[in-house]
Amino acid sequence: MGDSVGVLHYTTIGDMIKRYREREQLTITQLANLSGVHKGVISKIELGDTKRPELRTIKPIANVLGIPFPEIVEQYIEVERRVDVLRELLLEVIRFSNQTLISKVALKLLESPLEDTNTAIEQLYDLADTLTDTDSKLALFKLIVRYSRERGIPLFIAKGLLQTYMIERLDLKRMDESYKDGEEILHYIEFLSKEQKINYYFRMALQAFAIEPFA
Fold this sequence. Notes:
Blueprint: H1 13-23, H2 28-35, H3 39-47, H4 55-65, H5 69-79, H6 83-95, H7 99-110, H8 117-130, H9 134-151, H10 154-168, H11 175-183, H12 194-211
């Protein structure tokens, strides 16, 4: 496969596929045979008749043509509004642990007019809480805090800040910084549950004790 032709040159997902296909000197029929996607489906995508194809349809085509996954994601971010597709896309970028794309797709999901804002934030928060990859968790919690600040949603500012603090306090090189960041949670403490408050005060006390000899 040759080098990437550049995301900025594409106008649609279909345009991207067509240009990669032509670069590889494949006919639509050949691409259909190699990818297992019907040639009629590919033709409709390339012509723009299908403007928002399912991700499961695009993936085998992209695999044959060697289209980098980030390029596919960028195109979906431009055109996609369906909540279920955006969630599927978010799970895919989380699997690749690409924090830039994670933030972009998650923001698109939060901004979807097809989902209630509080519901979208809560579902994103619950998803982030289940992740094992620390960098991905942190990217999502920081986005939740930023998005909630912009829209004045103190509950998720509080919960996002707490989760961010719990992760960043483990970085021994940033103990002073993370402790100062943790102090901001005091401004939103009333929005935390009793259990969360106890956990927060306990962790802050431990950290204060740890950094005090170096203060």
